Amino acid sequence: MKQSILTLALLLGGAALAQTAPTTPVPATPTPATPAPAPAAADAQTVVAQVGSEKFTLADYDRAFRIAVARVLNSQGVPYTPEMLAEFAEARPDYLTQFARDRAVYQLARRNTQVTPAQIDAQVAAARKGFASDAEFAEALQGTGFANEAELRADLERQAVVQAYLDSIKARLTFGDAVVNSFYNLNRASFNRPAQACVKHILVKSQAEGQAVLQAVKGGADFAQLAREKSQDPGSAAQGGDLGCISPGDTVDAFDRAAFSGPVNQPQLVQTEYGWHVLDVTKRTPAGLAPLAEVAPLIREQLARDAAQKYLDTQIARLNIQTNKAAVTLPAAK
């Protein structure tokens, strides 16, 4: 549901490894050598990137690109479908840089970090909970860009390994009150925040379905459970319908008006081009300067993330990263 102007920025901003991205843009990782251009019709086994001694094929890249596109769409409240890939075709060459960087971080992370199959089993079981059948779960997986459970497991394993690695780096980085206060005073403009609305929703296809869900919620039904069972938005359904906090203009007009002008903690029914939303605004925050006490934890996190990013950049620079953008560039439509 976020407007389409944001989609490329979200995709190229590191959707596949969002937890490593600092608030300010990260320069693209240098690629000291580039393989020869691929033939016009590259096949799935064409090597498109090499990180150290590890090679990645077009099939590997296409899988990652599909999942990254699905995450962007899901963050906007839109389920992924294969035909939507065409809308992101121009981002494919630049996303290859992000793909190679993510694989470099994963390569560094797994040298000293491992997760057990039991940990991944638990995450899959949590994702599987709430679906009545394997067929429903498989459909939900496809709506989030995963072709099957094996792809989900591989993605969860990579994320867990990388997150544990990043946490271990950040745990060694601490910043005292004086540093935090100085950062706040030097960057006060950065803490002038827009108004925000924290929202959750259940997306259904028809007005009749929306009215039925709205009445159920007003009657005391559990919103999160209904979202998991009925919402057509795979990006938020698994989170009980929670979309987090949005700012004015982040969403399409009808949703935006309801989020910022409608009642708080009173579910309402809203129609957009995506369907009918049972929308509940749980909190609104006015625009203005955020107080230091509120943002100090975020500042410490930002400082630690930036320092960790610099450390990662140093480590990645030691790897020989090669990319072949020609192999991932699709022919221009005639």
SSE layout:
Blueprint: H1 7-12, E1 47-51, E2 54-57, H2 58-75, H3 92-109, H4 117-128, H5 134-143, H6 149-170, H7 177-186, E3 192-193, E4 196-204, H8 207-218, H9 223-230, H10 234-237, E5 242-246, H11 253-261, E6 268-272, E7 275-285, E8 288-289, H12 292-317, E9 321-323, H13 325-328
Antiparallel strand pairs: 1-2, 1-9, 3-8, 4-5, 4-7, 6-7
Helix pairs in contact: 3-6, 4-6, 7-12
Domain PpiC: 194-283
Signal peptide: 1-18
Protein name: PpiC-type peptidyl-prolyl cis-trans isomerase
CATH fold name of the largest domain, please?
Triger factor/SurA peptide-binding fold
Instruction: Report the β-strand fraction as a percent range.
Output: 5-15%
Mean pLDDT equals 86
Count of helices?
13
Identify the CATH architecture of the largest domain: Orthogonal Bundle
Whole-number total of structural domains: 2
Strand order of the biggest β-sheet: 5-4-7-6
Categorize the overall geometry.
globular
Distance between the termini: 30 Å
> Radius of gyration, rounded?
22 Å
Q: CATH first level of the largest domain: which class?
A: Mainly Alpha
- What is the ordering of alpha helices and beta strands? HEEHHHHHHEEHHHEHEEEHEH
Helix content: 40-55%
Uncertain runs with pLDDT below 50, 5 residues or more? 1-41
Q: Strand pairing plus helix content: what structural class?
A: alpha+beta
The overall strand count is: 9
The profile of the biggest β sheet is: 4 strands, antiparallel
Describe this structure in words.
The chain has 334 residues and is an alpha+beta fold. The protein folds into two domains: 22-172 and 308-328, Triger factor/SurA peptide-binding fold (Orthogonal Bundle), CATH 1.10.4030; 195-286, Chitinase A, domain 3, CATH 3.10.50.40. The protein has 13 helices and nine strands. A four-stranded antiparallel β-sheet has the order 5-4-7-6, sandwiched between helices. Strands 2-1-9 form a three-stranded antiparallel β-sheet. Strands 3-8 form a two-stranded antiparallel sheet. The longest helix has 26 residues, at 292-317.
